[in-house]
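Case study: tRNA (guanine-N(1)-)-methyltransferase.
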Amino acid sequence: MRIDVVTIFPGYLAPLDDALVGRARRAGRLDLRVHDLRRWATGVHQAVDDAPYGGGPGMLMTAPVWGAALDEVTASGEGAPRLLVPTPAGPPLTQQRVAAWAVEPWLVIACGRYEGIDARVLEDAARRMPVEEVSLGDYVLAGGEVAALVVVEAVSRLVPGVLGNPASAELDSFAEGTGGLLEAPAYTRPERWRELDVPEVLRGGNHGAVARWRRDRSLERTAAVRPDLLDALVARHGPDAFD
Ligand code: ADE
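Here is what the predicted structure looks like once written out:
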């Protein structure tokens, strides 16, 4: 899979050299390219932003700079990529969206800064490729770079061959394998630590009992912290969802 990230702070993406994503890149499973938006800026000051029409605080990233960058990056491969644009005004990132992106051959992530990007950039891009906005959550970051890191990591671990054990992604919180619920708590050795014991059922060899215990804890935890996920499960599978 190929992922291009366009940003005015390429250094922000340096963590993608490390850990799981770094390993996937070196193994050739992930072709990740980070581009400095200023390469496409013109003029002595290489400005990428300007004041918004209609007034208001802050600056907007300009259409000509982003247009030139996206033209060049999206013409550098086969077919059209899917363009992802992090913004607090987008629909939220979910594991479902991550899973859908993980089967795409090519993603381009456009990181905005300041008050965002001139709206015509996305309108124009959508003439040639699928475009999706995405928000990390109901809070405002200083730019899209952190969201790009999140998207690249979440997508990469679903790309075949990136995770050592693909079964671990199937049992993640929010994954289909757990019914879209939160994971049960997990324990490893030692069996007793600071007078706290690993639950008895996990120490026996009864796989059915372990599975039931995990499902019950998963339901309990989800009801306590994310009741909205239980509602979504019932909406998808009906009232028998918990049988
Ligand atoms: N850029 C600024 N805030 C953001 C958010 N919450 N999610 C994604 N991109 C952003």
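For the exam, be able to explain this: The chain has nine helices and nine strands.
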